[in-house]
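hey
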């Protein structure tokens, strides 16, 4: 199994303990996310230390205030590291009033351009901004590999699939009240499907009282396999193949 999105530096325990727990659970690949320069450097350090770990670099929309050319330059330098496999997470967030929309849009556009410049996939965060996120990606990200991290638009699934984007489900798909999201996990094309933890957030239902960690991605994968009527091994093989095709690891 792989974990396609985790904030490793925010997960409890040392990196070595977290990676060891993931390994024991059968997780062989972890993509940890840097959402700003400091966390990106921490992600890089983890990737340099642990062979199971790769990283992505981005400037999260909630911290996009004042995004400028210097921020883009720093991201570009970090993204050229050989173990950096993706740009993001980036996107739009109208749920939390943490950064002006104009700054979010500027950071989003810059990171789309950086993904195109470096030939790397683009990891998307969107919350309460679905229309504008989809419109921006459709207009500006054509030809890029786009990952809809922590997929939250079940009513727009067909539209997202038509664009050729990757649909990545986090632990919230397992929650009893997330019926529409669970249905989307059934309907998403198997060849475009990914799973993730979004650790330390969105712990899957079977272990929900705990803080999330990469090892717990197996619970999300098992849930999706059951909903789709697949053997776990079949779902696992598909996710492995998808992530290898997307990230080249």
């Amino acid at each position: 199994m792989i974990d396609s999105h985790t904030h490793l530096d925010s997960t409890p325990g040392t990196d070595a303990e977290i990676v060891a727990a993931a390994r024991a659970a059968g997780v062989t690949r972890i993509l940890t996310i840097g959402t700003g320069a400091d966390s990106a450097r921490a992600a890089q350090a983890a990737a340099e230390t642990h062979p199971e770990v790769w990283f992505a670099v981005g400037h999260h929309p909630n911290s996009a205030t004042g995004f400028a050319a210097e921020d883009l330059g720093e991201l570009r330098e970090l993204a050229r590291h050989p173990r950096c496999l993706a740009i993001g997470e980036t996107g739009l967030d109208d749920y939390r009033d943490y950064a002006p929309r104009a700054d979010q849009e500027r950071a989003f556009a810059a990171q789309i351009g950086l993904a195109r410049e470096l030939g790397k996939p683009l990891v998307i965060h969107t919350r309460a901004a679905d229309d504008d996120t989809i419109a921006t990606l459709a207009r500006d990200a054509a030809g890029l590999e786009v990952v809809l991290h922590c997929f939250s638009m079940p009513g727009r699934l067909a539209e997202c699939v038509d664009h050729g984007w990757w649909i990545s489900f986090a632990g919230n798909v397992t929650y009893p009240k997330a019926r529409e999201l669970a249905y989307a996990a059934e309907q998403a094309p198997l060849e475009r499907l990914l799973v993730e933890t979004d650790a330390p957030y969105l712990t899957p239902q079977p272990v929900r009282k705990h803080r999330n960690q990469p090892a717990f991605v197996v619970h999300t994968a098992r849930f999706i396999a059951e909903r789709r009527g697949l053997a776990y091994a079949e779902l696992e093989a598909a996710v492995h193949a998808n992530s290898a095709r997307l990230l080249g690891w």
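Strands lie at 2-6, 29-34, 53-57, 84-93, 122-127, 146-148, 166-169, 193-195. The longest strand covers residues 84-93.
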